[in-house]
């Protein structure tokens, strides 16, 4: 596995250097979209608008949405590009399983792209004048969000293996993910709180908003719920991906386009 990881990390580094302008463009677009929405809300509400820590929560949700979109597009986009170029079969006949290859590739890409995500966070904070807290405890709820994101990415990847093209589905899913990352489900009560804990990545996102935007201590019982949530969605995603892999091999349409 270490050999596979370093190979994928090398591949990701080469692509990052070769397409550096595209990465910089992604930073500009992401920050411009958020700042445009921020200015529009400020104009509509008038000069008396006071966001308070709600703006901090919105920043956390937007950055998480950007991170999750990258993870989703990484796995499903790789499957579609490999199918179009006719190299998908090569990935499936490697000494490693397809799920290991795509997970390792996604993690290697994420390590390189984390610098871009950090740049987006810093630029947005500078533009809005709101500075988030970054305690060491944020890594635990962030891990739960990553588990759920990779689970969803593998679930969508299973569809990409079978139907090959998912542009319209991904476009609709992007808006649903924005809802999941932005709505403060951690403030829901009663039966709605249970619903919020069942939504993918929602418990971890709520913990990150509490820790980074509201400077609250980490809620350990809620962290346990977040880990269960992320682990379940990750397991479901891997199961669906391996099922789709068996189906495509069974019917011989792995490299179809």
TrEMBL record:
Pfam families cross-referenced by the UniProt entry: ABC2_membrane_3
Keywords per UniProt: Membrane, Transmembrane, Transmembrane helix
Residues annotated as domain ABC-2 type transporter transmembrane: 56-238
Chain segments annotated as transmembrane: 20-45, 57-75, 110-132, 138-162, 169-185, 220-241
Record's bilayer topology term: Multi-pass membrane protein
GO molecular function: ABC-type transporter activity
Annotated localization: Membrane
UniProt main location, coarse: membrane
PANTHER family linked to this entry: ABC-TYPE MULTIDRUG TRANSPORT SYSTEM, PERMEASE COMPONENT (PTHR43229:SF6), NODULATION PROTEIN J (PTHR43229)
UniProt-recorded name of the protein: ABC transporter
């Amino acid at each position: 596995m270490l050999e596979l990881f370093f190979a994928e990390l090398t591949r990701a580094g080469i692509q990052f250097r070769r397409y550096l302008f595209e990465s910089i463009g992604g930073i500009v677009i992401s920050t411009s979209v958020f700042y445009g929405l921020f200015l529009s809300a400020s104009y509509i509400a008038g000069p008396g608008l006071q966001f308070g820590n709600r703006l901090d929560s919105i920043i956390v949700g937007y950055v998480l949405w950007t991170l999750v979109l990258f993870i989703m597009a990484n796995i499903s986009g790789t499957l579609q590009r490999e199918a179009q170029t006719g190299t998908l079969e090569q990935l499936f006949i490697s000494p490693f399983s397809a799920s290991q290859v795509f997970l390792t590739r996604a993690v290697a890409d994420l390590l390189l792209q984390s610098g871009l995500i950090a740049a987006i966070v810093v630029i947005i904070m500078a533009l809005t004048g709101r500075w988030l807290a970054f305690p060491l405890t944020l890594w635990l709820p962030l891990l739960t969000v990553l588990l759920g994101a990779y689970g969803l990415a593998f679930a969508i990847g299973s569809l990409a293996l079978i139907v090959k093209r998912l542009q319209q589905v991904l476009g609709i899913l992007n808006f649903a993910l924005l809802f999941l990352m932005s709505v403060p489900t951690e403030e829901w009560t009663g039966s709605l709180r249970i619903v919020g804990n069942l939504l993918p990545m929602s418990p971890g996102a709520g913990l990150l908003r509490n820790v980074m935007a509201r400077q609250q201590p980490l809620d350990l019982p809620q962290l346990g719920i977040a880990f269960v949530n992320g682990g379940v969605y990750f397991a479901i995603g891997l199961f669906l991906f391996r099922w789709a892999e068996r189906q495509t091999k069974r019917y011989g349409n792995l490299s179809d386009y």
